[in-house]
């Protein structure tokens, strides 16, 4: 096994050693600054099971020999500068053992090869930001991959039928920046889904209530869409992280959402007060971002729990004094109260918070000495 290399060794010098190690089972060169092209005779590594060069500067076409190693289980070429069409995927066959394929965030172009459907053993697949030249990709080409647990198609213009049925094993689905204009209705009966990212699309209207009833759902990101109306959250939901910033939600923040550990409702049209249930019924709240809404009243003492790491309530209409319960938030790193109507003495007592890194108090009515000494 070769683990991540953290020096600037020239790949051309390293190739000679690498390709002579024919018994290698795992190669991990991820998160370096290697550049150039991969050697053409990669198939000499006939026992290779895992090849990970994620997040480097490799470029040029991927050699077809890499796709001819039958022992490969994991192949990660993501976040490089590889180019060209990937017709070389045709070298794969359904008999191969490949389980994890990450080739997203490169400069691949052209149609997504239909041969991808041959890789029936895939459990994880990332094709994110593939340049299809403006062509719309039909989601159904992935339905033959019955073993998929994770699929990332970010940045690809997708055509998604409401009658689709995901593989029952699917746990993580990323459809960010796919030009989707309707909430994927086919998810309604998908009871095994844990993580859903449909951010940065063009979805309008209300968020469907049935989303909260999916029994395994833990992470939801619907940021940067055009959802509107009141946010209705069903009680006893399993969702622990909910990211809904940059939408058009209005009305009051529902109390049922107080159970989450991460909540971002920034840049919406919420009104009313901050629910007092944050931190009362939930001891795991770590991120609470309510920036740029129309919230009024005071920041409730009860909302500030000891595990809170980031609190952003800037650009609202909050008033009153800064809650002294902040003193109990020993993990707090980020606190933004800007552009509110808070009237209080300068909170010098915040200096006792050991992890506080960023403090923004501007455009309020703080007064008195401003020394932390």
Question: What's a quick, concise take on this entry?
Answer:
It is found in: Membrane. With 373 residues, the protein is mainly β.
Describe this structure in words.
With 373 residues, the chain is mainly beta. The protein has a domain at 1-135: Leucine-rich repeat, LRR (right-handed beta-alpha superhelix) (Alpha-Beta Horseshoe), CATH 3.80.10. It has one helix and 29 strands. The chain has one helix at residues 11-20, and strands at 26-28, 35-36, 50-52, 57-60, 74-76, 81-84, 100-102, 107-108, 124-126, 137-138, 150-152, 158-159, 172-174, 195-197, 204-205, 219-221, 226-230, 241-243, 248-252, 262-264, 269-272, 287-289, 294-297, 310-312, 317-320, 334-336, 341-345, 358-360, 365-367. The strands form four sheets. A 15-stranded parallel β-sheet has the order 1-3-5-7-9-11-13-14-16-18-20-22-24-26-28, with no helix packed on it. Strands 15-17-19-21-23-25-27-29 form an eight-stranded parallel β-sheet, with no helix packed on it. It has a four-stranded parallel β-sheet with strand order 2-4-6-8, with no helix packed on it. Residues 3-11 have low confidence and may be disordered. This is Receptor-like protein 12. It is a single-pass type I membrane protein. Keywords: Glycoprotein, Membrane, Receptor, Signal, Transmembrane, Transmembrane helix. It is found in: Membrane.
